[in-house]
From TrEMBL:
Domain Carrier: from-to ranges: 20-95
Name this protein carries in UniProt: Carrier domain-containing protein
PROSITE patterns assigned to the protein according to its UniProt record, in alphabetical order: CARRIER
GO CC terms in record: cytoplasm
One Pfam short name: PP-binding
Region spans: Disordered: 98-118
Gene3D superfamilies: ACP-like (1.10.1200.10), Chloramphenicol acetyltransferase-like domain (3.30.559.10), Nonribosomal peptide synthetase, condensation domain (3.30.559.30)
Keyword Cell inner membrane: no
Keywords: Phosphopantetheine, Phosphoprotein
UniProt lineage: Bacteria, Bacillati, Actinomycetota, Actinomycetes, Kitasatosporales
GO molecular function, one term: catalytic activity
Species of origin: Streptomyces avermitilis
Gene Ontology biological process: amino acid activation for nonribosomal peptide biosynthetic process; antibiotic biosynthetic process; lipid biosynthetic process; secondary metabolite biosynthetic process
Record has Transit peptide as a keyword: no
Domain of life, source organism: Bacteria
Amino acid sequence: MGNEEGETLMDTGPVPHGRRDARTVADFARRFWQDLLHVPDVDDDAHFFALGGHSMLATRLMSRMRKALDADLPAGLIFDHPVFADFVTRTIAALGEDSAPADERPRTSGRVTGPVSPQQERLLRIEDALGPSPVHSIVVPVALDSPVDGAALRLALHALLTRHGALRLAFPTPDGGGAHQQVIVPPWAPADVELVERDMPVSIEGQAEDAAILKDVRLAHLKPFDLMRGNLLRAQLFRRRHAADLLVLHLHHLAVDGVSQTVLLDDLAEAYTQLVTEGRVHMDNSDALTHIDYALHRGGRQGDMAADSRRHWTRVARDLAADLAAAAEPAPRGMRYVRRGAELDTSVLHGLHAWAGTEGATDFVVATAAVATALAALLGRRHVGIGTLLDNRAHAAHERTVGPFANSTLLAVPVPDGATPRDIVRATQAQLAEARRCADSPLDDLLGPPCAAVGLCPDDLVDAVVAFDRPYRAPAESALRMSPLYDHGDLLVPSALGPRLSVTLFAHDTGTLRITVEHTEDPADPQRPDAVLSALVDTLRLFAEAPDATVAPSPAAVPR
């Protein structure tokens, strides 16, 4: 992305240490805020989150600030100081405290073989236990605004494989129980890129067309990736008769996370546009870090958990375990999931934004607070365990690196009697800020010791996993205009792995809010998913309409 003069903000280069003056810092910050938030001006009293900022944009902002100022700035700086003038002041103060030597920052190694990251290690343990399966496969369907050239699309997909080493990862079986390794294999020839094109019959009806496509996508999803072979990207192109053409990308969690999917869609659009307008692809990747570089850097920093991090996770385990001890025995966990959904009109998001922005609260924070409040009432709890993912791209050089950087974390959200939505949002903010400071390893490693001390496993503490999504926006002037399709219907395939309850909130460009609940099936309580969804809808409306009203007290404890 560039400014009005066409200059790329990331191309300004780091400033010398002697030029980290207030004006330079403010200039960089203001330009980055304008670019990321798409606003023409940023005043001193501007609030990052009130201007539309969210956690992903906050991560990108801090990445750019670190690179521009050549400093190891704290990841939580923008969350703790979201007002522009305060952010600049605290950034200047942090620059004076920056003592991280350059050799402690990730560098391009040029290696094509290396250790796996902690995130990959956890996934590979499951892969080893299950054998070949689609459990970690990802489906990304996107509607295409206009017909595409299949040959150019194949070359654009090949450009993705060439540019992003994570898509070419192979994971050889460890010899004799040794440590897992990852290997970046050479990209296949363009002709060997796995793109399957299908023209739907002219005579097919709309519903039959949808059913036929869904069957093809499901079959492709069920085909496991060959982790020994590499190249973790497949694609299907459906030329539909009753709707826009459909492109479906099949990816693997060992290679990508949520942020990576956005990077890949951006780069696919860029490569395709270059091919159809210039006849070639010229995306520079000469100095990009790979996930192997990240794993090497992360491995070099492994050590004993910091004392404050140990205290935090001990407190989380203690608070949630205390409530569990007082609760009724949890219901047996099912092996199938039931999905339910509801759509809230524009008044809900509008009402939430009217007051949450002044609190510096992101949509995710407000949604998490509302989910915790609803579950506290349903479960009879004073603390609710909310799981989520935190982007772990702590360095500017990783902003566009594809890989599984996200770490799971757990918030022990307090919902005391007499609390208001505003109180619970503030408490959630505090919990999230603390988790960001302490989430430097996979959650099982962080919570394992304190959970063992109270006779629980980390999964026992998770009441729900929460995510907040927004529509993808294709780059301007792209010849490949993509609109991702967000599935709110039945699950693509049954799953036996996952949390007891997942809640996904999706904010449409129209201002409506979609809630999707996935709950383990319990034959003894078949109405449970509907009760959870109803409680969430009522709580979100309460949060939107009455942020200072007292929430209903929790009833007696009931099984989870």
